[in-house]
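Hi support team,

I've been running sequence recovery on a batch of backbones for a student project. Most finish fine, but this one hangs at about 90% for roughly twenty minutes before it completes. I'm not sure whether the input is malformed or the queue is just slow. I've pasted the structure tokens below so you can try to reproduce it. Let me know if you need the job ID as well.

Thanks,
M.K.
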């Protein structure tokens, strides 16, 4: 059967060491043109490779800006093999008719476990004791060393990760308070703080779990750090832009904060061979990790399967359920029909032009699915048509003004 892109012709470009479970998921579905890179690509190379790709998979280091996406003439969909999607210009992708998928939960537990481990380590002063032992020193002392039990954990951003951290912290006997811009169901005995300021003033350990947005950029700066309790601890496993790293280094140097654990940085090395530079380097009371909050084998394996499956569902069936930037449709299979996809700018008249086209050709529509948002309309049409008719219909659909992408799926 003739489709716009037979599976064996669909080129999948996977960057940044996306798990092999993704490759295997594509292969099991009959996709054979899969290119896997261990690193992100320099911008020029990314533009060149994305121009050839139908499906692109990235993690947090590849920046799919509007300019990069302009080169993606054949692109069907983008997969972020992680939670964060801030590295993709989602609006630009949507305007080009390209849905973006991610894995909203697959590494949640991994991040939460690391945060709890770090909270305990910081409360006990382990980073500095460990560093001193490595230099041949010895400080057997209880000074500055505390149990987690009875301490207050302040969770900023009470979403998937923040709530998991809260539940685990309560099992250690910690009191949990949280701050979120949305009204949230408090799990266990957790309580909403009156404000961010209130949380900062009350928490012994503050942990950040907000996404990167204009509102969260530098949300923890000198004033917020000053509002924290003397001797408090800060954990950031969200995004590097959320904390003013210079102000954090200063608060640590002055001893206002007793320690910190930082997994994400305003500027991160592109690959494992590139140098890491930060004002926090060399501070014994700071746990530094190379953006590995979600990097466990379990999480990466699950993410590979989850995101590849979403990309396949869109590529093979047209479903956009859980796309982060696109009208969502969940489609049944209609194997006895031909399925055509039409993505267009959401301007008046496009749908009637589409329907006129089918009635003029005397083609019976078996089913039609439409979902729109303010800018983009997505129509899936199942028709009783033969192969030649479907190909001709696709060409006519492509000629409708406002069309962004069109395909014959099967
Ligand atoms: N370090 C890592 O490896 C790693 C792994 C996974 C996720 N992350 C980061 O963690 C972030 C959070 O992940 P999640 O799955 O919990 O996301 P989520 O969307 O489930 O939760 C985020 C929460 O933050 C809240 N929020 C948004 N803006 C806010 C603001 N200005 N002030 C207060 N609250 C605000 C939201 O309402 C939401 O409840 C991700 O966006 C990603 O950037 C990092
Ligand atoms: O794997 C990555 O590069 C990003 C991990 C994490 O920050 C996420 O957003 O899920």
């Amino acid at each position: 059967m003739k489709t716009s892109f037979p599976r064996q012709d669909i080129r999948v470009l996977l960057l940044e060491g996306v798990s092999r479970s993704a490759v295997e998921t594509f292969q099991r579905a009959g996709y054979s043109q899969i290119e896997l890179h261990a690193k992100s690509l320099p911008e020029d190379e990314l533009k060149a490779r994305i121009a050839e790709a139908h499906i692109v998979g990235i993690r947090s280091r590849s920046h799919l800006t509007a300019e990069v996406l302009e080169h993606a003439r054949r692109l069907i969909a983008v997969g972020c093999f992680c939670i964060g999607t801030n590295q993709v210009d989602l609006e630009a992708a949507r305007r080009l008719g390209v849905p973006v998928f991610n894995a909203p939960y697959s590494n949640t537990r991994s991040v939460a476990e690391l945060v709890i481990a770090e909270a305990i380590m910081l409360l006990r002063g382990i980073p500095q004791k460990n560093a001193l032992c490595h230099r041949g020193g010895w400080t057997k002392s209880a000074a500055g060393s505390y149990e987690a039990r009875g301490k207050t954990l302040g969770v900023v951003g009470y979403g998937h990760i923040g709530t998991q951290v809260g539940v685990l912290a309560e099992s250690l006997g910690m009191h949990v308070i949280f701050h979120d811009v949305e009204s949230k169901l408090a799990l266990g005995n957790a309580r909403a703080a009156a404000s961010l300021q209130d949380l900062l003033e009350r928490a012994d350990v503050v942990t950040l779990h907000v996404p990167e947005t204009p509102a969260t950029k530098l949300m923890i700066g000198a004033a917020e750090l000053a509002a924290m309790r003397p001797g408090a601890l800060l954990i950031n496993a969200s995004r590097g832009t959320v904390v003013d790293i210079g102000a954090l280094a200063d608060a640590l140097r002055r001893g206002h904060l007793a320690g910190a654990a930082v997994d994400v940085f305003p500027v991160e090395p592109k690959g494992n061979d590139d140098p890491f530079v930060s004002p926090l380097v060399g501070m014994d009371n700071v746990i530094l990790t190379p953006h590995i909050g979600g990097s466990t084998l379990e999480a990466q394996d699950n993410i590979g399967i989850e995101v590849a499956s979403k990309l396949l569902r869109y590529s093979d069936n047209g479903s956009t359920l859980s796309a982060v930037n696109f009208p969502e449709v969940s489609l049944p299979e209609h194997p006895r029909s031909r399925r055509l996809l039409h993505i267009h700018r959401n301007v008046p008249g496009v749908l009637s032009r589409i329907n006129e086209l089918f009635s003029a050709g005397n083609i019976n529509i078996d089913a039609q699915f439409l979902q729109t948002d303010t800018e983009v309309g997505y129509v899936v049409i199942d028709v009783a048509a033969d192969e030649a008719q479907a190909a001709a219909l696709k060409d006519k659909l492509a000629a409708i003004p406002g069309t962004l992408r069109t395909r014959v799926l099967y």
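--
Follow-up from support: It reproduced on our side and the slowdown came from queue contention, not your input. The mean pLDDT is 96. No action needed from you.
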